[in-house]
């Protein structure tokens, strides 16, 4: 018998109040995949991710995780199965990084239980791999955007779920830290987790994704392996950008280079060498 998909959306319609954002979306995310959602601003990427995370409830259709309707999970079971790194979240005033990361362990503890060695190990490992150990005692609100983003990621890692949802996890990060986070997600994926991330950088998406989900206007425009999905026609169609696609010189995955929309300001490309 084949395993059920990690995530399955079946004719899902979802939005905010009376405003529908995604209509009749059906989608399967394979277990153990590194799936990346791409698409223009406002196309519904975060809305779909939040729907999978049960933050938003579809008005029609069904969402299943590991073969089970998400409505059948208790809150605690769900928090042990699916972790979400949302966009632009605020921490409670005065909270330290370690306090935040400890919160990731809540779904694994009963209300009156003490911290176990496993909790402590999960927290210290999460701080370690995200490079946040050095500022564990600092107040979150007093950190830089990138430091804060890594602290939230540490909380997600401490939650230790088989499915991770990440909404623009590289926001605020400098280029080295962006690739550090993406490599960390690749390691989690290699270790068997299902990773679903929203990314804006198409070249990063193509480097790391096993599967791309291209969204446009609340619909799935295309899904598949980056090498087949990412074409100049798709980028023109979905993003309205004329581009060339060449093999990334480092990884061989598709790399997108926009065609100039007007002549280069100096009249030619900068001289090389
Ligand atoms: N809390 C909200 N209340 C009402 N409308 C919302 C809310 N959040 C998002 N929307 C609307 O839903 C639509 C889809 O937004 P969503 O955040 O899912 O897009 P996105 O693809 O993630 O965009 P971006 O790339 O800009 O982050 C947008 O038109 C947005 O204005």
From TrEMBL:
Residues 7-242 form the ABC transporter domain. It comes from the Bacteria. Residues 252-273 are annotated as: Disordered. SMART domains: AAA. Keywords: ATP-binding, Cell membrane, Ion transport, Iron, Iron transport, Membrane, Nucleotide-binding, Transport. SUPFAM superfamilies: P-loop containing nucleoside triphosphate hydrolases. GO terms for biological process: iron ion transport. Its main location: membrane. The keyword Membrane applies. Pfam families: ABC_tran. This is ABC transporter domain-containing protein. It comes from Micromonospora haikouensis. The lineage of its organism: Bacteria, Bacillati, Actinomycetota, Actinomycetes, Micromonosporales.
């Amino acid at each position: 018998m084949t395993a059920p998909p990690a995530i399955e959306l079946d004719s899902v319609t979802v939005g905010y109040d009376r405003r529908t954002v995604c209509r009749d979306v059906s989608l399967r995310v394979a277990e153990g995949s590194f799936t990346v959602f791409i698409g223009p601003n406002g196309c519904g990427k975060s809305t779909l991710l939040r729907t999978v995370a049960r933050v938003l409830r579809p008005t029609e259709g069904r969402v299943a995780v590991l073969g089970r309707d998400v409505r059948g999970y208790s809150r605690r079971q769900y928090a042990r199965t699916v972790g979400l790194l949302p966009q632009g979240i605020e921490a409670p005033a005065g909270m330290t990084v370690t306090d935040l990361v400890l919160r990731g362990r809540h779904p694994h503890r009963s209300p009156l239980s003490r911290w176990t060695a496993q909790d402590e190990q999960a927290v210290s490992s999460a701080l370690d791999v995200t490079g946040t150990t050095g500022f564990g005692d600092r107040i979150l609100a007093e950190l830089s955007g990138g430091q804060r983003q890594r602290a939230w990621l540490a909380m997600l890692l401490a939650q230790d779920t088989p499915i991770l949802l990440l909404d623009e996890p590289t926001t605020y990060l400098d280029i080295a830290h962006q690739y550090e986070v993406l490599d960390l997600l690749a390691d989690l994926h290699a270790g068997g987790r299902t990773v679903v991330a929203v990314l804006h950088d198409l070249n990063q998406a193509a480097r790391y994704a096993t599967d791309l989900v291209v969204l446009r206007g609340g619909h799935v425009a295309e899904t598949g392996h980056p090498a087949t999905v990412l074409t100049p026609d798709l980028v023109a169609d979905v993003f309205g950008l004329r581009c060339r696609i060449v093999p990334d010189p480092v990884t061989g995955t598709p790399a997108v280079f926009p065609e100039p929309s007007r002549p280069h300001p100096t009249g030619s490309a900068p001289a090389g060498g």
